[in-house]
Specification:
- Helices cover 41% and strands 11% of the residues.
- It is built from ten helices and seven strands.
- A hairpin with a 5-residue loop joins strand 2 and strand 3.
- Helix 6 packs across helix 8.
- The chain starts with 13 loop residues before the first helix and ends in a 9-residue tail after the last strand.
Length: 311
């Protein structure tokens, strides 16, 4: 009989996940540490926003339209984010200092703050442009602020991440009930930044428990998790037998790259089936830089681009 780990322990914290990754990959510790203050700030900020948001009468309840969901339309598609403006000061206080510590971003953060303070830019418009993947609007906003497109996008993504992660935490019970077959998030429409193979349920048959776990996607924006079909490419939906290929580095087969032979897109995966610990999935993509490097050498492209996986 095959032994399968079924730990009931809580997921590791952000700091524990980062510490474990630095111990496992000492050569990458300096790069991982470079972003650690930002992720620690998110971990501290999101619970505060969740508490405040739960008591905010102006924060709208999610509306789950069954027909729209069946058509693949995310819950927050076309939803107004005007209510989010009242949280900008809290988010700025929590995130802008650690953002300024990343590389040469200090001047960009100052330009971002100034553009909003002088009402040259609207935080609502910025958040909406990112949520809608409106590149033309973001390009115009970057020019208005005197910033590079990529930097403005990254800063706004960090704001939206904290905001929507808190929103999902409040309404998670409702979002978990959504039946969804798409590769993008049923809540906000973003693509996943990592996937996991889950441990079997305690009442699962021995055959299924030994064979493999449920594949879950983790949203790169709002941190919602949803079930997705194994063997299907999340980028191009290629699902023929053998469509998805895998590789890992060193002796750790629990951390691997899953990529599509057809479109050459990849997504990192963590296999939890034989593990007794669960990393914090928000920061986990950062700890897999070694996989991103290998994927880049193989000329693969990430499903979701970040500052550390674009070479």
């Amino acid at each position: 009989m095959q032994n399968v780990a079924t730990s009931s322990t809580a997921p590791l914290s952000v700091s524990q996940t980062l510490h474990t990754a630095c111990e496992r990959h000492p050569a990458l510790a300096s790069l991982i540490t470079h972003f650690s203050a930002l992720y620690s700030a998110h971990a501290e900020l999101i619970p505060k926003l969740t508490e405040k948001m739960a008591e905010d009468a102006n924060c709208p309840e999610p509306v789950l339209h069954k027909e729209r969901l069946q058509q693949g339309v995310p819950v927050l598609a076309d939803a107004s984010l005007e209510w989010a403006e009242s949280y900008y000061s809290d988010i700025a206080e929590g995130l802008f200092e650690p953002l300024s510590q990343i590389g040469t971003m200090q001047q960009s953060v100052e330009l971002y703050q100034t553009a909003i303070a002088d009402k040259k830019l609207s935080i609502t418009d910025l958040l909406s442009a990112v949520q809608d993947s409106n590149e033309s609007a973001l390009t115009q906003h970057a020019a208005t602020a005197g910033m590079e497109y990529g930097t403005l996008l990254f800063i706004t993504q960090q704001i939206l991440h904290s905001l929507l992660s808190a929103y999902v935490a409040i309404h998670n019970a409702a979002f978990e009930k959504i039946f969804w077959r798409e590769a993008y998030c049923p809540v906000c429409g973003s693509f996943p930044d990592i996937s996991t193979l889950q441990r079997p349920d305690p009442d699962q048959s021995e055959f299924l428990a030994g064979g493999g776990g449920k594949k879950m996607m983790h949203c790169s924006t709002c941190s919602h998790e949803w079930h997705f079909r194994r063997g299907t490419c999340p980028a191009c939906n290629h699902d023929e037998v053998g469509a998805i290929h895998y590789f890992h580095v060193e002796d750790n087969s629990a951390e691997r790259v899953e990529y599509c032979e057809k479109c050459k897109t990849y997504l990192n995966n963590i296999d939890l089936r034989n593990s007794t610990t669960t990393p914090d999935l928000t920061v986990a993509p950062l700890t897999l830089i070694h996989l991103d490097m290998q994927a880049a050498q193989k000329k693969l492209k990430p499903l979701v681009r970040s500052l550390w996986n674009t070479f």
